[in-house]
From TrEMBL:
It holds the Pfam family EF-hand_7. GO terms for biological process: calcium-mediated signaling. It is found in: Membrane. SUPFAM superfamilies: EF-hand. It comes from Theobroma cacao. One of its GO terms (cellular component) is membrane. Homodimer. Interacts with CIPK. SMART domains: EFh (SM00054). The keyword Iron-sulfur does not apply. Residues 71-106, 108-143, 152-187 form the EF-hand domain. This is Calcineurin B-like protein. Acts as a calcium sensor. CBL proteins interact with CIPK serine-threonine protein kinases. Binding of a CBL protein to the regulatory NAF domain of a CIPK protein lead to the activation of the kinase in a calcium-dependent manner. Keywords: Calcium, Membrane, Metal-binding, Repeat.
Length: 214
């Protein structure tokens, strides 16, 4: 009996930092236990590409997205920052699962809209300003290999601000953003991945294929 307990304890000790019980994570997210376990397999691959410490570092996140750990992109950086809930420069397994749960078909639409709002709110002021929107549009276009002139981008930003900024104060608050997305549902189209298999295979692409407001 003592040998059994010792073995059991050793197995628990071997779990890497940030690991959380799949049963607990499944109870807190739309994922099933089997889906959480499958996500753990994906997480283990991503978190061991550069530093095998059970945590996803920004370089590993970039490597998963671009096959290049040194390439930087504002959009991808923002996604990493939102996944890194504790703001300590790494993504734990629990943070990974809870963040990805937003892309589950059963996740509330309000959560998806809120996630995108925080993504575009670069300065974390609680508002999306035209300059932030412009920066994000350029980042999305860059990774989509689309080359639009500054005038066209300005037109996209102006049109978006004109439609979304209902209060006319030069910025978009959360309430205005919700109304804007409801009128333009294509903006959150890539916020839902219907199958776990698609989620695990398409993890790099959901970041890079988001819609540009038009």
């Amino acid at each position: 009996m003592r040998a059994f307990k010792a073995c059991f304890c050793l197995k628990k000790v071997r779990q890497k930092p940030g690991y959380e019980d799949p049963i607990i994570l499944a109870s807190e997210t739309p994922f099933t236990v089997n889906e959480v376990e499958a996500l753990h397999d994906l997480f283990k691959k991503l978190s061991s590409t550069i530093i095998d410490d059970g945590l996803i570092h920004k370089e590993e996140f970039q490597l998963a997205l671009f096959q290049n750990s040194s390439k930087r992109n504002l959009f991808a950086d923002r996604v990493f920052d939102l996944f890194d809930v504790k703001c300590n420069g790494v993504i734990t397994f629990g943070e990974f699962v809870r963040s990805l749960s937003i892309f589950h078909p059963n996740a509330p639409e309000s959560d998806k809209i809120a996630f995108l709002f925080r993504l575009y709110d670069l300065r974390q002021t609680g508002y999306i300003e035209s300059e932030e929107l412009k920066e994000m549009v350029f980042a999305l276009l860059s990774e989509s290999n689309l080359d639009l002139s500054d005038d066209v981008v300005e037109s996209i930003v102006e049109k978006t601000m004109m439609e979304a900024d209902m209060k006319g104060d030069g910025k978009i608050d959360e309430e205005e953003w919700r109304e804007f997305v409801k009128k333009n549902p294509s903006i959150i189209r890539n916020m839902t991945l219907p199958y776990l298999k698609e989620l695990t295979l398409a993890f790099p692409s959901f970041v890079l294929n988001s819609e540009v407001p038009d």
